[in-house]
């Protein structure tokens, strides 16, 4: 949970760096299914919005919304403190109950949890009543929102992220290797990676496949491949871990062999906290973007392929976009150690294809995620104003503006990103793997299991144990972790 939250915070921060450049309201209760009357410019009322920063809210949404409805009194409940909380979802729930905001800016995890607890207003009826056009949204986004909402629509998301396979065309040409294609399997992509002559160190280092800049442990790729094949490593209902199987072993063996040879990159030990990162100042000089060292490998021409989201597309060719050197600084972990460098980015001849899939589910991947969700408090006393705001935040006007400035992908199909000569449709081609969302594991178990598995994977890569030994240790330790987690969650 914490890991996913921090990834969303990183995406949020980057998005804002790029983007930075009523009588009826008070009489309608928050009763689910209540009809929401329309809001006119002259209507008076109030609207309390939970957003991470008041200044950012008014710059991004509030000023324009206030101009549309000048008699609606806007109040912002800051959620900045939630970002540093040990349990961000619980902290946000506490803030919701104490402050009772009408409209909420949520992460995907918060949205799913609050929908399950009945804290959010069901939008299905008002969408039909208002004839709000959901068909103008990316179908996979609406599908994911409903899946996260247990089959109902409790919010709208103006943007989303998905991962693709980036590849360096010049490196493929240099070594006479055919380009990747849409719909390749994971096995095919790993076989491509093996064909490059690996060199792990030095300025001329070369890797076949570098993992996402958001990857935090060596188990993550294995889990992703397994889930694409429909495998599960733990069943909370049955209370069993089932990682020691021939199917999982084949995936472990393939990835560990790749880690050993260097054809697949081993995630850096500090990738989770972005240590050893590059910091880039934004155009206005008021913000910075931190880019992990791993993601730099592809942009510096040291990896033939990498798996990543739309942010990397915005950074490729940054030399030209920034128009000057010296805008990039190395950060070794403390501000006092920063020094000016020439930009490490190269002009990469790149393109993208869809994320690798399993042939049995060629249109599905687990990489689709919601950058943010705008929802309405089920207890709101200002439903008309809250709905008008949610519509505005997800409206065509903002989508048109954001499509040019935001690194995220617009949920509205009319504002798909374009990049001349690039297969950008790959970002939009695959559906969410909603079956994964139906599987729930006890709080904290996923991270604990990943930590256990990663430790054993590293031992196997170092030659300290066999893959069979690693699987046996993960099976035994994982079963203990699941049993303990279920007891602590009161499920036993």
TrEMBL record:
Leader sequence residues: 1-19
Presence of keyword Signal: yes
Keyword annotations: Signal
Phylogenetic placement of the source organism: Bacteria, Bacillati, Bacillota, Bacilli, Bacillales
Alphabetical list of InterPro entries matching this protein: Bact_solute-bd_prot1, SBP
Pfam families: SBP_bac_1
Tree of life domain: Bacteria
Name of the molecule in the record: Extracellular solute-binding protein
SUPFAM superfamilies: Periplasmic binding protein-like II
Native species: Paenibacillus spongiae
């Amino acid at each position: 949970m914490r890991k996913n939250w921090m990834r969303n915070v990183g995406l949020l921060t980057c998005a804002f760096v790029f983007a930075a450049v009523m009588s009826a309201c008070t009489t309608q209760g928050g009763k689910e299914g209540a009809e929401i009357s329309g809001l006119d410019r002259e209507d008076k009322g109030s609207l309390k919005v939970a957003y991470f920063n008041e200044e950012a809210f008014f710059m991004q949404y509030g000023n324009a919304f206030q101009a549309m409805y000048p008699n609606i009194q806007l109040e912002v409940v800051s959620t900045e403190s939630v970002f540093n909380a040990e349990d961000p979802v619980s902290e946000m729930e506490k803030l919701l109950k104490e402050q009772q905001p009408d409209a909420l800016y949520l992460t995907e995890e918060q949205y799913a949890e609050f929908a399950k607890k009945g804290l959010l207003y069901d939008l299905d009826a008002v969408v039909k009543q208002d004839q709000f056009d959901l068909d103008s949204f990316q179908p996979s986004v609406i599908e994911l929102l409903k899946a996260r909402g247990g089959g109902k629509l409790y919010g709208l998301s103006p943007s989303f992220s998905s991962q693709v396979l980036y590849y360096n065309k010049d490196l493929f040409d240099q070594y006479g290797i055919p380009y990747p294609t849409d719909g390749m399997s994971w096995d095919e992509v790993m076989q491509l990676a093996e064909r490059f002559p690996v060199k792990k160190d030095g300025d001329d280092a070369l890797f076949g496949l570098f993992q996402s800049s958001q990857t935090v442990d060596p188990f993550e790729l294995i889990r992703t491949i397994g889930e694409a094949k429909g495998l599960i490593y733990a069943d909370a209902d049955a209370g069993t871990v089932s990682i020691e199987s021939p199917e999982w072993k084949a995936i472990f063996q393939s990835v560990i062999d790749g880690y050993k040879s260097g054809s697949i990159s081993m995630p850096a030990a500090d990738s989770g906290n972005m240590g050893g990162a590059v910091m880039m100042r934004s155009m206005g000089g008021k913000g910075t973007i931190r880019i992990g060292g791993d993601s730099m490998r592809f942009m510096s021409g040291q990896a033939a392929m990498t798996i990543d989201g739309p942010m990397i597309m915005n950074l490729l060719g940054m030399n030209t976009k920034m128009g000057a050197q010296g805008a990039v600084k190395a950060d070794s972990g403390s501000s006092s150690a920063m020094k000016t460098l020439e930009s490490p980015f190269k002009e990469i001849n790149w393109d993208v294809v869809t994320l690798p899939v399993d042939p049995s589910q060629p249109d599905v991947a687990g990489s689709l995620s919601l950058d943010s969700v705008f929802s309405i408090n089920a207890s709101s006393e200002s439903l008309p104003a809250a709905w008008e705001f949610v519509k505005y935040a997800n409206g065509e006007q903002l989508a048109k503006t954001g499509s040019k400035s935001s690194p995220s992908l617009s949920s509205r199909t009319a504002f798909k990103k374009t990049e001349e000569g690039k297969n950008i449709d790959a970002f939009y081609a695959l559906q969410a793997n909603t079956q994964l969302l139906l599987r729930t594991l006890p709080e904290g178990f996923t991270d604990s299991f990943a930590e256990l598995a990663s430790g054993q994977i590293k031992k196997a890569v170092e030659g300290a144990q066999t893959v069979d030994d690693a699987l046996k240790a993960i099976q035994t330790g994982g079963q203990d972790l699941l049993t303990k987690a279920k007891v602590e969650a009161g499920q036993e």
